[in-house]
């Protein structure tokens, strides 16, 4: 047509419906029907799920209301923990025995479960050979000869072992408690000799060893059998009756004794002359243990017993000990505040440098009356501040033992040759 633009076309005309006839509805497509059916299906699924959830929740709520409530059990009264000195973070160490002046709480029967479960203390120990666990059915006893009260008795096996112990010893006050055992003061009825009885539950013993005769026993007893024979600087193991549920260690105990922690607190700090004598005895005890192939790993004032009558110092509590080795240790056992910096930084340590580090802390506690790092000081600073009243030889020895680099610390024999140990002024 004239006047139409090129490229444009008129839309086709819609057909008009006939008069009197209704217009036909458009027929739905198959896709629309499928969508509608799918929507109805999911609507039904949602409704069914909500109904089931609501019905189940209501039913569970009704059952909970109908269920009889159990009566609340009375909470057991916890006994106070009798630990000497301030609480410390211990990893792998049972709490040491306190002095005989501890609270006179009456002890439960020996080997009885009435004492309650020991508080769990996480412990990481060195893996040692021969830690297979024997059966817990028979009662056994071992005797280790040594000075002090004689170990001349025999404990009957099996069921009569507990009765025999009660007939031979009279238990006294609780001296100390830890994650692996309890220590009681006791008296041997045959001669009235004072002893200490350490009771350890069998399920708390993680490492076992073998005595020279092939007897399987906890590693602590194996180490004590190595070091507590004829040497006065280490506590003597008199016998170790093994009961079905626990193991009992009978140890010597001086008549008048006090752990070094309480000994220092009673005097605030020790004069250098008194500290020198006690420190020399500790060094001799450590050298004796080293010569026997034993590493104590928990040297601190609480684990040193002082005989108030003779002034003799005794190293106690080998619960964190292990066999001495030349290679590195990758598991720590002992008190964390006495751990060397190489353990905190790298996760390993050698036996002798770690022992020298703990001996340096021990000497600092003797002459200063406090732990050098307890107040949160950073161990990476330079010089260790020490009181002006101390001699230059004592300051030099403490700082030498507390060298940050383990290679810079002295050997054990170097400590015996230091001028302070001989009261020789430095040039």
Radius of gyration: 38 Å
Give the CATH topology: Transferase(Phosphotransferase), domain 1
Biggest sheet strand line-up: 2-3-4-8-7
The computed structural class is: alpha+beta
Mean pLDDT: 75
Count of the domains = 1
Shape assignment: extended
Q: What level of helicity do the residues show? A: 25-40%
- Cα distance, first to last residue? 129 Å
The CATH architecture would be Orthogonal Bundle
**Main sheet characteristics:** 5 strands, antiparallel
Strand content: 5-15%
Order of helices and strands: HEHEEEEEHEEEHHEEEEEHHHH
- Count of helical stretches: 9
Low-confidence runs of at least 5 consecutive residues: 74-159
CATH-wise, what's the superfamily? Transferase(Phosphotransferase) domain 1
The first-level CATH class name: Mainly Alpha
Name a few traits of the molecule.
9 helices, alpha+beta, 3-stranded antiparallel beta sheet, Transferase(Phosphotransferase), domain 1, extended, 427 residues
What do you see in this structure?
The protein is of the alpha+beta class and 427 residues long. It has a single domain, classed as Transferase(Phosphotransferase), domain 1, CATH 1.10.510. Helices cover 28% and strands 14% of the residues. It has nine helices and 14 strands. The strands form five sheets. The chain has a five-stranded antiparallel sheet. A three-stranded antiparallel sheet has the order 9-11-12. Strands 1-14 form a two-stranded antiparallel sheet. Helix 5 packs antiparallel against helix 7 and helix 7 packs antiparallel against helix 8. It is extended and about 115 Å long. About 20% of the residues have low confidence.
């Amino acid at each position: 047509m004239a006047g139409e633009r090129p490229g444009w076309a008129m839309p086709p005309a819609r057909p008009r419906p006939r008069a009197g006839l209704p217009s036909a509805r458009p027929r739905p497509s198959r896709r629309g029907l499928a969508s509608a059916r799918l929507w109805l299906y999911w609507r039904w699924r949602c409704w069914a799920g909500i109904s089931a959830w609501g019905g189940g929740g209501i039913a569970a709520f009704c059952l909970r209301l109908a269920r009889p409530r159990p009566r609340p059990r009375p909470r057991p009264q916890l006994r106070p923990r009798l630990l000497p000195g301030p609480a410390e973070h211990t990893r792998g160490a049972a709490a040491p025995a306190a002095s005989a002046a501890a609270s006179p709480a009456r002890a439960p029967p020996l080997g009885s479960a009435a004492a309650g479960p020991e508080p769990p203390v996480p412990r990481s120990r060195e893996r040692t050979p021969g830690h297979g666990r024997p059966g817990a059915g028979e009662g056994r006893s071992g005797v280790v000869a040594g000075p002090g009260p004689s170990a001349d008795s025999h404990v009957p096996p099996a069921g009569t072992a507990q009765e025999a112990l009660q007939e031979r010893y009279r238990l006294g006050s609780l001296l100390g408690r830890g994650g692996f055992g309890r220590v009681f003061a006791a008296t041997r009825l045959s001669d009235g000799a004072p002893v200490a009885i350490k009771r350890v539950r069998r399920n708390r013993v993680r490492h076992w060893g073998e005595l020279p005769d092939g007897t399987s026993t906890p590693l602590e007893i194996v180490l004590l059998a190595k070091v507590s024979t004829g040497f006065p600087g280490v506590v003597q193991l008199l016998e170790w009756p093994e009961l079905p549920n626990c193991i009992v260690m009978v140890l010597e105990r001086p008549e008048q004794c006090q752990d070094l922690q309480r000994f220092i607190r009673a005097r605030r700090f020790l004069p250098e002359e008194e500290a020198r004598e006690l420190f020399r005895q500790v060094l001799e005890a450590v050298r004796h243990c080293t010569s026997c192939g034993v590493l104590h790993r928990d040297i601190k004032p609480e684990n040193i017993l002082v005989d108030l009558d003779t002034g003799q110092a005794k190293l106690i509590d080998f619960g964190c000990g292990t066999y001495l080795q030349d290679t590195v240790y990758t598991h720590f056992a002992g008190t964390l505040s006495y751990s060397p910096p190489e353990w905190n930084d790298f996760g390993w340590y050698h036996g002798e440098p770690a022992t020298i580090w703990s001996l340096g802390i021990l000497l600092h506690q003797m002459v200063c009356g406090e732990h050098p790092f307890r107040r949160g000081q950073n161990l990476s600073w330079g010089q260790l501040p020490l009181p002006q009243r101390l001699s230059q030889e004592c300051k030099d020895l403490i700082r030498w033992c507390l060298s940050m680099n383990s290679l810079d610390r002295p050997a054990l024999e170097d400590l015996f040759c230091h001028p302070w140990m001989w009261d020789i002024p430095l040039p």
